[in-house]
Write a structure and sequence with these properties.
globular, 7 helices, alpha/beta, Rossmann fold, 6 strands
């Protein structure tokens, strides 16, 4: 016999650094006016759903996106560092457009998605995948153990890229071919059986109907 829980994941709303393609990583950058509007639209779209828990990355842009929904549902926000953006070390604060001239080696590794390339002081893709996989497992196990039926998590582009790859069985090296828009809604079904353990199934991805009258960007991992 298997048990299951719905895990909904949303990317944070837009920041000024998203708009200019500057690497945020684990630096705290607040939502801009558009990002705040996206967070409100997201809360309005989801307020009629029953969520047992609201989880967020501890970074401001994710937490700020989570708050309108948490307030509408009268639920606290559980901060979980497992869902923070990838740490880009000494690349944080740089522009993608400038990286090729400032640090061509890092730019080449970035473009190639070299799994073990680790920016100085940061995380490699392998490290990020392991962190996200462990966080997903712990969140799912906690939900299943408590009898929760639906949990929502507010996180980041790099994390959501890994979530999709983990759920779909896609290696970390190939280029991304799926959208991860700011304030988009993504849905997983997580089931557990004695014989197979946890199984992640993508139910819906990159839903943005609730943002129809707002601008969208799809910038990964910044």
């Amino acid at each position: 016999m298997s048990k299951a829980v719905e895990l909904w994941l949303c990317r944070h709303g837009e920041t000024d650094w998203n708009a200019i393609r500057r690497i945020q990583g684990q630096l705290d950058v607040s939502l801009n006016a558009l990002g705040q509007a996206q967070a409100k639209k997201l809360a309005q779209a989801l307020a009629n759903h029953d969520f047992d828990e609201v989880v967020s990355s501890p970074l401001d842009r994710a937490h700020q996106t989570a708050l309108p929904l948490a307030q509408a549902l009268s639920l606290p926000v559980t901060l979980d560092a497992a869902f923070a953006e990838r740490h880009f070390g000494d690349l944080q604060g740089r522009s993608f457009d400038d990286m090729a001239s400032i640090d061509p080696e890092a730019a080449a590794h970035w473009q190639a998605r070299t799994p073990d390339f680790c920016p100085v002081g940061g995380e490699s893709l392998l490290m990020l995948r392991d962190r996200v996989q462990a966080g997903l497992g712990e969140l799912a196990q906690r939900a299943l153990s408590s009898g929760a039926t639906r949990v929502i998590c507010f996180t980041h582009g790099g994390v959501l890229d890994m979530v999709y790859r983990i759920a779909q069985g896609i290696d970390i090296s190939p280029p991304r071919e799926w959208g991860i828009p700011n304030a988009g809604i993504n849905q997983l079904r997580v089931s557990q059986s004695v014989s197979q353990g946890l199984n992640f199934q993508v139910m819906a991805w990159a839903q943005t109907d609730h943002l129809a009258d707002l601008a969208l960007h799809d910038s990964l991992g910044i």
